[in-house]
Amino acid sequence: MTGPARDWKSELTRLAAEAREGGREEELVRELYDVLDELRRARAPRAGEFPSRFGIVSAAPEMQPVFGLIERVAPSDVPVLVLGETGTGKELVAHALHTSSRRAKATFLAENCAAVPANLLESELFGHKKGSFTHAIADRPGHFVTADGGTLFLDEIGDMPLEMQSKLLRVLESGELRPVGSSQVVRVDVRIVAATHRDLAVMVKERRFREDLYYRLNVIKIALPPLRKRSGDVELLARFFLAKFAAPGVELSPEALAALRVFPWPGNVRQLENELRRATALARGNIGLGELSPELQASA
Questions:
Q1: pLDDT > 70? residue 28
Q2: How far is CA 39 from CA 32, 106, 242, 245, in A?
Q3: Alpha carbons 15 and 49: distance in angstroms, whole number
Q4: CA–CA gap between residue 80 and residue 93 (Å, rounded)
Q5: Most CB contacts within 10 A, which of 11, 68, 82, 111?
Q6: Structure pTM?
Protein backbone atom coordinates (compact mmCIF):
# COMPACT_ATOMS: atom_id res chain seq x y z
CA MET A 1 0.00 0.00 0.00
CA THR A 2 2.37 2.72 -1.19
CA GLY A 3 2.40 5.89 -3.23
CA PRO A 4 0.25 8.98 -2.72
CA ALA A 5 -0.58 9.01 -6.46
CA ARG A 6 -2.51 5.72 -6.35
CA ASP A 7 -5.75 5.40 -8.32
CA TRP A 8 -8.00 5.13 -5.26
CA LYS A 9 -11.19 4.47 -7.23
CA SER A 10 -9.65 1.47 -9.00
CA GLU A 11 -8.18 0.21 -5.72
CA LEU A 12 -11.51 0.29 -3.93
CA THR A 13 -13.30 -1.26 -6.93
CA ARG A 14 -10.80 -4.12 -6.94
CA LEU A 15 -11.25 -4.76 -3.21
CA ALA A 16 -15.04 -4.66 -3.52
CA ALA A 17 -14.91 -7.24 -6.34
CA GLU A 18 -12.73 -9.55 -4.24
CA ALA A 19 -15.10 -9.14 -1.31
CA ARG A 20 -17.97 -10.39 -3.46
CA GLU A 21 -16.04 -13.58 -4.19
CA GLY A 22 -15.98 -14.39 -0.46
CA GLY A 23 -13.58 -16.35 1.68
CA ARG A 24 -11.21 -13.49 2.57
CA GLU A 25 -13.50 -11.19 4.52
CA GLU A 26 -11.19 -10.40 7.46
CA GLU A 27 -8.15 -9.82 5.26
CA LEU A 28 -10.13 -7.57 2.93
CA VAL A 29 -11.48 -5.54 5.83
CA ARG A 30 -7.91 -4.94 7.00
CA GLU A 31 -6.91 -3.89 3.49
CA LEU A 32 -9.84 -1.49 3.33
CA TYR A 33 -8.75 0.07 6.61
CA ASP A 34 -5.22 0.44 5.20
CA VAL A 35 -6.63 2.21 2.16
CA LEU A 36 -8.73 4.53 4.32
CA ASP A 37 -5.75 5.32 6.56
CA GLU A 38 -3.66 6.22 3.54
CA LEU A 39 -6.50 8.35 2.20
CA ARG A 40 -6.59 10.27 5.46
CA ARG A 41 -2.82 10.74 5.49
CA ALA A 42 -2.87 11.94 1.90
CA ARG A 43 -5.59 14.42 2.80
CA ALA A 44 -4.10 15.55 6.14
CA PRO A 45 -3.48 19.31 6.32
CA ARG A 46 0.04 20.16 5.24
CA ALA A 47 2.23 22.92 6.63
CA GLY A 48 1.42 26.13 4.80
CA GLU A 49 -1.90 24.86 3.46
CA PHE A 50 -3.78 26.85 6.10
CA PRO A 51 -2.56 30.17 7.56
CA SER A 52 -1.29 29.71 11.09
CA ARG A 53 1.22 30.98 13.64
CA PHE A 54 2.59 29.05 16.60
CA GLY A 55 0.48 26.06 15.54
CA ILE A 56 -2.76 28.08 15.82
CA VAL A 57 -4.80 28.17 12.61
CA SER A 58 -6.19 31.67 12.05
CA ALA A 59 -6.24 34.51 9.57
CA ALA A 60 -8.45 36.78 11.67
CA PRO A 61 -7.21 40.31 12.41
CA GLU A 62 -8.54 39.85 15.96
CA MET A 63 -5.92 37.14 16.57
CA GLN A 64 -2.91 39.20 15.51
CA PRO A 65 -2.47 40.91 18.93
CA VAL A 66 -2.44 37.44 20.50
CA PHE A 67 0.31 36.27 18.16
CA GLY A 68 2.26 39.47 18.81
CA LEU A 69 2.13 38.94 22.58
CA ILE A 70 3.19 35.30 22.28
CA GLU A 71 6.20 36.34 20.20
CA ARG A 72 7.25 39.08 22.64
CA VAL A 73 6.60 37.22 25.90
CA ALA A 74 7.74 33.66 25.07
CA PRO A 75 11.49 34.29 25.54
CA SER A 76 11.00 35.52 29.13
CA ASP A 77 10.14 33.52 32.24
CA VAL A 78 7.33 35.75 33.52
CA PRO A 79 4.01 34.12 34.43
CA VAL A 80 1.25 34.49 31.86
CA LEU A 81 -2.50 34.49 32.47
CA VAL A 82 -4.53 33.36 29.45
CA LEU A 83 -8.17 34.40 29.48
CA GLY A 84 -10.94 33.25 27.19
CA GLU A 85 -14.15 31.29 26.88
CA THR A 86 -14.11 27.51 26.97
CA GLY A 87 -12.76 26.02 23.75
CA THR A 88 -10.91 29.11 22.48
CA GLY A 89 -7.50 27.42 22.51
CA LYS A 90 -5.91 28.49 25.80
CA GLU A 91 -3.75 25.36 25.99
CA LEU A 92 -2.50 26.01 22.44
CA VAL A 93 -1.31 29.43 23.60
CA ALA A 94 0.42 27.90 26.62
CA HIS A 95 2.13 25.34 24.41
CA ALA A 96 3.19 28.07 21.98
CA LEU A 97 4.77 30.04 24.84
CA HIS A 98 6.69 26.92 25.84
CA THR A 99 7.90 25.84 22.41
CA SER A 100 9.03 29.39 21.58
CA SER A 101 11.01 29.77 24.81
CA ARG A 102 14.42 28.70 26.07
CA ARG A 103 12.56 25.93 27.93
CA ALA A 104 11.36 24.28 24.72
CA LYS A 105 13.53 21.17 25.16
CA ALA A 106 12.30 20.64 28.72
CA THR A 107 8.93 19.25 29.84
CA PHE A 108 5.57 20.88 29.18
CA LEU A 109 2.83 19.65 31.51
CA ALA A 110 -0.83 20.63 31.64
CA GLU A 111 -3.29 20.14 34.48
CA ASN A 112 -6.96 21.05 34.62
CA CYS A 113 -7.56 22.30 38.16
CA ALA A 114 -11.31 21.78 37.79
CA ALA A 115 -10.90 18.11 36.89
CA VAL A 116 -8.93 17.01 39.97
CA PRO A 117 -10.70 16.54 43.32
CA ALA A 118 -9.63 19.18 45.85
CA ASN A 119 -8.12 16.60 48.20
CA LEU A 120 -5.88 15.22 45.44
CA LEU A 121 -4.78 18.44 43.73
CA GLU A 122 -1.93 19.10 46.18
CA SER A 123 -0.51 15.63 45.54
CA GLU A 124 -0.87 16.06 41.76
CA LEU A 125 1.05 19.34 41.78
CA PHE A 126 3.58 18.86 44.59
CA GLY A 127 3.88 15.08 44.81
CA HIS A 128 3.72 12.84 47.86
CA LYS A 129 5.70 10.34 49.90
CA LYS A 130 4.79 6.69 50.14
CA GLY A 131 2.27 6.09 52.92
CA SER A 132 1.35 9.75 53.33
CA PHE A 133 -2.33 8.92 52.72
CA THR A 134 -4.52 6.00 51.69
CA HIS A 135 -3.46 4.49 48.34
CA ALA A 136 -0.11 6.35 48.39
CA ILE A 137 1.74 3.12 47.63
CA ALA A 138 4.88 4.78 46.25
CA ASP A 139 6.68 8.11 46.14
CA ARG A 140 5.33 10.42 43.43
CA PRO A 141 7.20 13.52 42.22
CA GLY A 142 4.24 15.71 41.21
CA HIS A 143 3.93 18.09 38.26
CA PHE A 144 6.23 20.82 39.55
CA VAL A 145 9.15 18.42 39.93
CA THR A 146 8.41 16.64 36.64
CA ALA A 147 8.27 19.97 34.81
CA ASP A 148 11.40 21.35 36.50
CA GLY A 149 13.19 23.50 33.93
CA GLY A 150 10.08 23.56 31.75
CA THR A 151 6.54 24.92 31.76
CA LEU A 152 3.48 24.01 33.82
CA PHE A 153 0.08 24.98 32.41
CA LEU A 154 -2.63 25.30 35.07
CA ASP A 155 -5.95 25.36 33.27
CA GLU A 156 -9.13 26.57 35.00
CA ILE A 157 -7.10 28.17 37.79
CA GLY A 158 -10.30 29.93 38.90
CA ASP A 159 -11.63 26.57 40.14
CA MET A 160 -8.68 25.99 42.48
CA PRO A 161 -9.79 25.85 46.15
CA LEU A 162 -8.67 28.79 48.35
CA GLU A 163 -6.53 26.59 50.59
CA MET A 164 -4.67 25.27 47.55
CA GLN A 165 -4.26 28.80 46.22
CA SER A 166 -2.27 29.69 49.36
CA LYS A 167 0.05 26.72 48.87
CA LEU A 168 0.54 27.53 45.19
CA LEU A 169 1.38 31.15 46.06
CA ARG A 170 4.13 30.02 48.47
CA VAL A 171 5.71 27.88 45.75
CA LEU A 172 5.59 30.73 43.22
CA GLU A 173 7.16 33.16 45.68
CA SER A 174 9.90 30.90 47.01
CA GLY A 175 10.52 28.38 44.22
CA GLU A 176 10.31 25.70 46.90
CA LEU A 177 7.75 23.01 47.66
CA ARG A 178 7.24 20.20 50.11
CA PRO A 179 5.63 16.98 48.88
CA VAL A 180 2.66 15.70 50.87
CA GLY A 181 3.94 13.66 53.83
CA SER A 182 7.54 14.89 53.46
CA SER A 183 9.60 17.14 55.72
CA GLN A 184 12.12 17.92 53.00
CA VAL A 185 11.97 20.98 50.77
CA VAL A 186 12.49 20.63 47.02
CA ARG A 187 13.61 23.54 44.84
CA VAL A 188 12.06 23.86 41.38
CA ASP A 189 12.40 26.16 38.38
CA VAL A 190 9.09 26.11 36.52
CA ARG A 191 7.41 28.71 34.35
CA ILE A 192 3.71 29.03 35.11
CA VAL A 193 1.06 29.69 32.49
CA ALA A 194 -2.42 29.81 34.01
CA ALA A 195 -5.76 30.01 32.26
CA THR A 196 -9.41 30.45 33.09
CA HIS A 197 -12.76 31.28 31.52
CA ARG A 198 -13.82 33.01 34.75
CA ASP A 199 -13.49 36.70 35.66
CA LEU A 200 -10.76 36.51 38.29
CA ALA A 201 -10.99 40.23 39.09
CA VAL A 202 -14.61 39.75 40.13
CA MET A 203 -13.69 36.62 42.07
CA VAL A 204 -11.04 38.62 43.95
CA LYS A 205 -13.65 41.21 44.97
CA GLU A 206 -15.94 38.40 46.12
CA ARG A 207 -13.03 36.85 48.10
CA ARG A 208 -13.24 33.63 46.07
CA PHE A 209 -9.76 34.07 44.64
CA ARG A 210 -6.68 35.34 46.47
CA GLU A 211 -5.72 38.86 45.45
CA ASP A 212 -1.99 38.25 45.97
CA LEU A 213 -2.09 35.11 43.80
CA TYR A 214 -4.05 36.96 41.12
CA TYR A 215 -1.38 39.63 40.81
CA ARG A 216 1.35 37.00 40.93
CA LEU A 217 -0.18 35.19 37.95
CA ASN A 218 -1.37 38.24 36.05
CA VAL A 219 2.05 39.61 35.06
CA ILE A 220 1.20 39.28 31.37
CA LYS A 221 -2.40 38.79 30.27
CA ILE A 222 -3.37 37.27 26.92
CA ALA A 223 -7.08 37.50 26.12
CA LEU A 224 -8.37 35.14 23.44
CA PRO A 225 -11.35 36.34 21.38
CA PRO A 226 -14.29 33.94 21.02
CA LEU A 227 -14.66 32.23 17.66
CA ARG A 228 -17.77 34.28 16.80
CA LYS A 229 -15.58 37.42 16.87
CA ARG A 230 -12.73 36.01 14.75
CA SER A 231 -13.47 37.34 11.26
CA GLY A 232 -13.44 34.56 8.66
CA ASP A 233 -12.03 31.90 10.97
CA VAL A 234 -15.19 29.78 11.13
CA GLU A 235 -14.94 28.91 7.43
CA LEU A 236 -11.14 28.60 7.58
CA LEU A 237 -11.23 26.25 10.56
CA ALA A 238 -14.14 24.28 9.09
CA ARG A 239 -12.08 23.57 5.98
CA PHE A 240 -9.05 22.75 8.15
CA PHE A 241 -10.99 20.18 10.18
CA LEU A 242 -12.62 18.81 7.04
CA ALA A 243 -9.17 18.21 5.56
CA LYS A 244 -8.15 16.54 8.80
CA PHE A 245 -11.13 14.20 9.22
CA ALA A 246 -12.70 13.59 5.79
CA ALA A 247 -11.66 11.59 2.76
CA PRO A 248 -10.26 13.48 -0.26
CA GLY A 249 -12.87 15.26 -2.34
CA VAL A 250 -15.43 15.68 0.44
CA GLU A 251 -16.72 19.25 0.55
CA LEU A 252 -19.14 21.36 2.56
CA SER A 253 -22.33 22.30 0.72
CA PRO A 254 -23.13 26.04 0.49
CA GLU A 255 -26.07 25.47 2.88
CA ALA A 256 -23.88 23.71 5.46
CA LEU A 257 -21.21 26.38 5.21
CA ALA A 258 -23.82 29.13 5.65
CA ALA A 259 -25.12 27.38 8.78
CA LEU A 260 -21.61 27.18 10.21
CA ARG A 261 -21.06 30.88 9.56
CA VAL A 262 -24.20 32.10 11.37
CA PHE A 263 -24.00 29.78 14.39
CA PRO A 264 -22.72 31.58 17.55
CA TRP A 265 -20.39 28.73 18.66
CA PRO A 266 -20.69 28.94 22.45
CA GLY A 267 -18.13 26.11 22.66
CA ASN A 268 -15.83 27.94 20.25
CA VAL A 269 -13.12 26.09 18.27
CA ARG A 270 -13.52 22.87 20.23
CA GLN A 271 -17.23 22.75 19.40
CA LEU A 272 -16.55 23.44 15.71
CA GLU A 273 -13.96 20.64 15.63
CA ASN A 274 -16.40 18.19 17.19
CA GLU A 275 -19.12 19.29 14.75
CA LEU A 276 -16.89 18.56 11.73
CA ARG A 277 -15.78 15.26 13.24
CA ARG A 278 -19.43 14.25 13.67
CA ALA A 279 -20.46 15.42 10.20
CA THR A 280 -17.67 13.52 8.43
CA ALA A 281 -18.61 10.36 10.33
CA LEU A 282 -22.24 10.64 9.18
CA ALA A 283 -21.70 11.81 5.61
CA ARG A 284 -21.67 9.40 2.66
CA GLY A 285 -20.36 12.08 0.34
CA ASN A 286 -20.31 15.83 0.59
CA ILE A 287 -21.52 17.33 3.86
CA GLY A 288 -24.92 18.97 3.59
CA LEU A 289 -27.20 20.59 6.11
CA GLY A 290 -28.63 17.18 7.01
CA GLU A 291 -25.27 15.98 8.35
CA LEU A 292 -25.00 18.87 10.82
CA SER A 293 -26.31 18.62 14.37
CA PRO A 294 -29.93 19.66 15.04
CA GLU A 295 -28.94 22.90 16.79
CA LEU A 296 -27.01 24.04 13.71
CA GLN A 297 -29.84 23.07 11.41
CA ALA A 298 -32.21 25.10 13.58
CA SER A 299 -29.95 28.15 13.48
CA ALA A 300 -29.85 27.97 9.68
A1: no
A2: 10, 35, 13, 10
A3: 32
A4: 10
A5: 82
A6: 0.81
> What gap in Å lies between CA 189 and CA 175, rounded to an integer?
7
Give the H/E segment covering residue 112: strand 108-112
Amino acid at 46: R
Dump pLDDT digits (tens) for 150-177. 999 999 999 999 999 999 999 999 999 9
Instruction: Return the half-sphere exposure (C-beta side, CA atoms, 13 A cut-off) of residue 143.
Output: 20
175 and 124 Cβ atoms separated by less than 8 Å: no
Query: What is the number of alpha carbons within 13 Å of residue 73 lying toward its C-beta?
Result: 25
Q: What is the dihedral of CA 32, 35, 37, 39, to 10 degrees?
A: -140
Residues making up the chain, counted from first to last: 300
What are the φ and ψ backbone dihedral angles of 127, each rounded to 5 degrees? 85, 175
Q: Judge whether 204 and 162 are in contact, CB under 8 Å.
A: no
